[in-house]
Each structure stands twice: as structure tokens, then as C-alpha cells.
Write a structure and sequence with these properties.
The chain is α/β, with parallel strands linked by helices. The chain has nine helices and eight strands. It has one domain: Rossmann fold (3-Layer(aba) Sandwich). Helices cover 35% and strands 22% of the residues. The longest helix has 14 residues.
């Protein structure tokens, strides 16, 4: 969902290039080591972070891990940045850019985990290639993830979940965990689950949350 443009967010993002990379050149390597206080820590990436509740909570709970929030909207990036600065989260960076270019922004096999939380379902068939679990995106994620890395995916959209199961399976991925009602049938996962803004909203209405973990 597109957020209403907030001038303060644009100004904040523009004033903090040390925390937000905006539309980086895909042909130029990014020096991630210089952007983190502890560059040798494991790296985890969330694609489509929205207002950032998930990735911010992760960064607060796990200072021993570095995180990158990938978000296309400047307003969303600004909302994440505001909290990052207030909380002093030096293990969180924000990349404002296109997820289709993800493997141009990171070294090969750099990340341990990649999170896809409540992505746009793009329900029309003609928009299939825009879905973040389409095969071209999976190829990009495979390039970015370590050989021991994995994807964690959550959605409230049954159609997108069914499509994603098929897409990942056809790509040859291996499923470590699958749930069609995360909050009620997977207590061992829910115990450590961090809700996104959308997840909290949909779960409060009694809607099932679909989830999977998979590796290449």
C-alpha cells in the first residue's frame, strides 16, 4: 500500500545519507562494511519493510546481527529512519531501491536470512512478474543469500501464498516450515514471531496468517 507523501520524511532521508542509500547505482559496488559499526556481524535483509515495525524490532532484539530494510517508498524509509535515529540502532541500514536489483546492491552470498513480509499480492495474471516470489526474484535472492541461508515469508493473502508455494517448489527450493494458520498451529514459531503492522491488523480480525521458511 502506497503511503501518503510526507515532506518531513523526504527531508529527513535526504539529510541522512549515512543511514539511507537512495537509488544506488547498480553498476557500482556498495561498501557495506563502512556503513555498519560492526561490519563482520551476520546480515539479514527485509524486502518491502513498510513502516518498519518488523525490522526495527529485529534490530533492537539482536544487536549482534546487521539488518538492511529495503523499501521503495521514500515516506516509508523516512518513518523507519526516524525510529532508527531515535533508538540509536547502528546495526540497521535502509536501502531505498528496487528489489529486482537486489543482487546488484549486495555481494554474492552475503546474507543469512531474507524476509518477505506481507508483500503486494499483485493478483492479476498480467502482473505475475511483479510478485516478490516470481522466479526472477528467486534467482536474485539465491545470488544474495549464503548457501546456508533461507527465506522467511508471511502473508494474509491465500492466493499469493498458494502461488508462492508453487513458485518456490518449481524453482527447486526446499521447505523447512509451512503453515496456513501461523498464530494458531505453530506455537514454536509464534513464540519468537515479530508481527508487522499488517499482520497485527489482520490477525486481530481473526484472519489466518500464512507462512513458510525455505532454502535453496
Amino acid at each position: 500500500m502506497r503511503l501518503r507523501n510526507k515532506p518531513w520524511a523526504v527531508e529527513l532521508v535526504n539529510n541522512h545519507p549515512e543511514s539511507v542509500l537512495q537509488d544506488p547505482d547498480p553498476g557500482k559496488a556498495i561498501d557495506w562494511h563502512s556503513r555498519f559499526a560492526k561490519p563482520d556481524q551476520p546480515l539479514e535483509i527485509e524486502v518491502g519493510s513498510g513502516k518498519g515495525n518488523f525490522i526495527i524490532t529485529k534490530a533492537k532484539q539482536h544487536p549482534e546481527i546487521n539488518y538492511v530494510a529495503v523499501e521503495l517508498q521514500t515516506t516509508a524509509a523516512g518513518i523507519i529512519l526516524r525510529t532508527k535515529l531515535a533508538e540509536g540502532l547502528d546495526n540497521l541500514q535502509i536501502l531505498r531501491g528496487d528489489a529486482a536489483l537486489l543482487d546488484s546492491f549486495f555481494p554474492q552470498h552475503a546474507a543469512d536470512v531474507l524476509y518477505l513480509n506481507f508483500s503486494d499480492p499483485w493478483p492479476k495474471t498480467r502482473h505475475e512478474k511483479r510478485r516478490l516470489t516470481y522466479k526472477s526474484f528467486l534467482q536474485t535472492y539465491q545470488n544474495v543469500l549464503k548457501e546456508t541461508g533461507h527465506i522467511e515469508f508471511k502473508t494474509d493473502n491465500a492466493g499469493l501464498f498458494s502461488y508462492s508455494l508453487m513458485s518456490l517448489n518449481n524453482y527447486g527450493m526446499h521447505f523447512d516450515f509451512v503453515s496456513v494458520d501461523l498464530h494458531h498451529e505453530a506455537p514454536e514459531i509464534v513464540a519468537n514471531n515479530i508481527e508487522t503492522e499488517y499482520e497485527h491488523k489482520f490477525a486481530a480480525k481473526g484472519n489466518p496468517i500464512y507462512a513458510l521458511h525455505a532454502h535453496f
